[in-house]
What does this fold into?
Amino acid sequence: MSLNVETPKKNRLFIKIQRNNLPQVKDRYPYIYLERGRLEIDDSSVKWIDCEGNLVRIPSASLNAILLGPGTSITHEAVKVLAASKCMVCWVGEDSMLFYAVGQCPTSNTRNMRVQMEKASSPKKRLEVARRMFLTRFPGEDISRKSLQELMGMEGRRVKQLYEQKAEEYGVGWKGRSFIPGKFQLSDITNQILSSANAALYGILTSAIYSMGFSPHIGFVHSGSPLPFIYDMADLYKEHLCIDLSFSLTLEMAGQYNKYLVAEKFRQRVLDMKILDIIGNDVKRMLDMK
It folds into this structure.
């Protein structure tokens, strides 16, 4: 969702919510993002009180999801009203660049998830979706006769070539992708930036895909991992948003990883690529949904 913006002090993916930038009742918006404040109930309606004491009534019936960022709290009564209006709640990091948990109404609409499951469970339809994803990334390739395994092999070679190409372009030494879970510091700077940017992209995609009523757990290319559909969709955006960013920042870091610089540069690229505006259409296009 894109809301009109009050002038931010730094680049942010989401903006501070006020009365004049709330969605109209005639529309149903995918999500709004809130941070540093409290959601509670007043006369059966949900109200948001921010850290400066400003009060905004939330039209929960017109929202698919509320993303609760750092410094937020929510009352039990507010959860009851949000559930009654089929508004999902997600707990996320700043700007949704981390995703922690989701609270979903038991009677929420499952239409999109049913379509996703039907296509993923049919070998023919799954391959069609996978080919559509690959053609988006590698336009002009003849993959009409490629199997899923052949597509994945082709992708592996292309990504390896892309790493080497970016290393040469930015004059960065590169020994290959390396990531040890729980041992972030053992990786080189380029790999550290890659891991952070990937995690931020996964967080944004998880919030968006949940809010649209799809499942992050039903993938078409990836499988056997916790969030295969997130990894499928992330591959559409990684080349510029994560890989190019990582190699371009490596020399600037001069051997010292700076998480604030990575977050700021990542946010700027998300804004430049208008990821929040295109995710919804991209998901439906990949699944061939009208």
Observations:
- The radius of gyration is 20 Å.
- The CA atoms of residues 38 and 73 lie 5 Å apart.
